[in-house]
Amino acid sequence: MISLRYGANPHQTEASLQLPDPSPLKILNGAPGFINMLDALTSWQLVRELKEATGKASAASYKHVSPAGAAIAKPIDDAFKESQFLKTTDFSEVASAYVRARGGDRLCSFGDVLAVSDTVDVSLAQFLKTEVSDLIIAPGYEPEALEILKAKKKGGFVILEIDYDFMPEGMESRELFGLGLSQTRNSRLITKADLANVVSKNKSISDETIETLLVAAISLKYTQSNSISVAYDGQIVGIGAGQQSRIHCTRLACDKADKWFLQRHPKVRGLDFKEGTKKVDKTNLIDQFLLWDSLSATEEEMMLQNFNTRPEPISREERIEWNRQHKDICLGSDAFIPFRDNIDRASRSNIQHVVETGGSLRTEFIVEACDQYDMTLTHTGIRSFLH
């Protein structure tokens, strides 16, 4: 048993982690808290399953037991570099996976728990040196990378090492309000074979898009339900998590995805910030800039104080034209989609591929809606609720 800093809140002073013998988990540095461990153990399962499904280094950025972002390793282009304020695109595979995962939602990734499927190298450790993050979990660390990370947060950065081959089976249990609950562990892995049932008229899905659909579907398995994901080019660009209605999940995920694509717009990449503006402040200012039409006069005035020249807002027509340029955007649902309003909202964000459980009483109307928008629709037959 390992004592944790505290429970979900500081006044919950007694908290601990029970480990099997032999233990698959080691604390190499720092002192994790209760929520840290929830994020670490959930995010680890996501990246491990992504690695198994795609064969590529995978990463996730977690906050409050849901992913802010998740991604597989891919080269980073100049648009991503500029929109994320990166100094280089020269990253190792495992580093590129995390850089892309963290860039899926910069606001939500602030102070995250991160998980990677592969050994942490110097490339990733150097990137993490200046990022605001609380914990990392990985199957291993290069010695130099470990020393770099141990110096982070004045020595308080939490570093966990987990056995990649550890895979519990059977039952899992929890206690709630003094009562015990147990269930069979959700050990059903999602694979490419689960994406074979394409029920729409349009059945054209490239191998690269199948990888992105896997990222969308697997990420939802480790997101608090109800949940919807939007993924592009092997990474999550919008998550709507923990809402009671699926349309609200869809709106939230698509709104985030719309912002993500607009961060790459030339007007955003060309914003003329005042010298000395910190990266975290740039992130918040861009978020405000993209909400220009809804800002009050006071908010607009305060925002403009951070620029050397007055920015030119992105018009509605420009937004639509810009987002329409991006191809093979995918939407995932952790259960069946009950009403076509989800598909209608997805179409406004230029979604071209949908993956869901299927089996709704209104499935025929969902298929019809996807056909009207020339989307592909894939039924997995797998529900992925997490609570």
Please explain how this structure is put together.
The structure is a single chain. It is built from 14 helices and 15 strands. With 387 residues, the protein is an alpha/beta fold. The protein has 3 domains: 25-162, Cytidine Deaminase, domain 2, CATH 3.40.140; 184-262 and 321-379, AICAR transformylase, duplication domain (Cytidine Deaminase, domain 2, 3-Layer(aba) Sandwich), CATH 3.40.140; 270-313, Orthogonal Bundle (Helix Hairpins). The strands form 4 sheets. It has a 6-stranded mixed sheet. Helix 1 (34-54) runs antiparallel to helix 7 (207-221) and helix 5 runs parallel beside helix 6. The protein is globular, with a radius of gyration of 21 Å.
